[in-house]
UniProtKB/TrEMBL annotation:
PANTHER family: D-ALANYL-D-ALANINE CARBOXYPEPTIDASE, PEPTIDOGLYCAN L-ALANYL-D-GLUTAMATE ENDOPEPTIDASE CWLK. GO terms for biological process: proteolysis. GO terms for molecular function: carboxypeptidase activity. It comes from Sinosporangium siamense. Residues 1-35 are annotated as: Disordered. It comes from the Bacteria. This is D-alanyl-D-alanine carboxypeptidase. Residues 34-142 form the D-alanyl-D-alanine carboxypeptidase-like core domain. The keyword Ribonucleoprotein does not apply. Pfam families: VanY.
Length: 155
């Protein structure tokens, strides 16, 4: 079981990038939902076949980790309103629900976006090329929703 990193088991050790939110899909008390985890594995395998290496750079976050990220964003951007464009409070975050992954590098993220929901993962925000959220509906319909300008549109 991986602990303290965001890379899933079939990726090589040299690909591990430390995650400020260290819970992974393999933790017993939380993590990515089974659907999100399976979607990522399927997408990563297809990405590799297409010549890309797709990594999770951030995944599941506890509510406290998300609160900490939000507080840091408020300090960085100067206001809660501006911070919400990039980081949501825990009660609004798909990361806390295990439904969101941040991925990289950018060419692999662009490849994932080009699959238009085929694996159930869709880019959600125009200002975050790295942020994808899982939904069975995306995979079923093979269609992603229109991009929201930023996370403030999350509701």
């Amino acid at each position: 079981m991986l602990t303290g990193c965001a890379v899933l088991p079939e990726q090589s050790a040299d690909a591990v990038r430390r995650d400020p939110a260290p819970r992974t899909a393999d933790t017993p008390k939380g993590g990515l939902t089974p659907g999100t985890r399976k979607a990522y594995h399927r997408a990563a395998k297809a990405a590799a076949a297409a010549g890309h290496t797709l990594h999770i750079t951030s995944g599941y976050r506890t509510a406290e980790q998300q609160r900490s990220e939000f507080r840091q964003a408020v300090r960085k951007y100067g206001s809660a309103a501006k911070a919400r464009e990039y980081v949501l409070p825990p009660e609004k975050s798909a990361h806390v629900k295990g439904l969101a992954i941040d991925v990289g590098p950018e060419p692999a993220a662009r490849w994932l976006e080009s699959t238009n929901g085929r694996y159930g993962l869709c880019r959600i925000y125009a200002n975050e090329w790295w942020h994808f959220e899982f939904s069975y509906r995306y995979a079923r319909e093979r269609r992603c929703p229109d991009l929201k300008p930023d996370a403030t549109a999350a509701g």
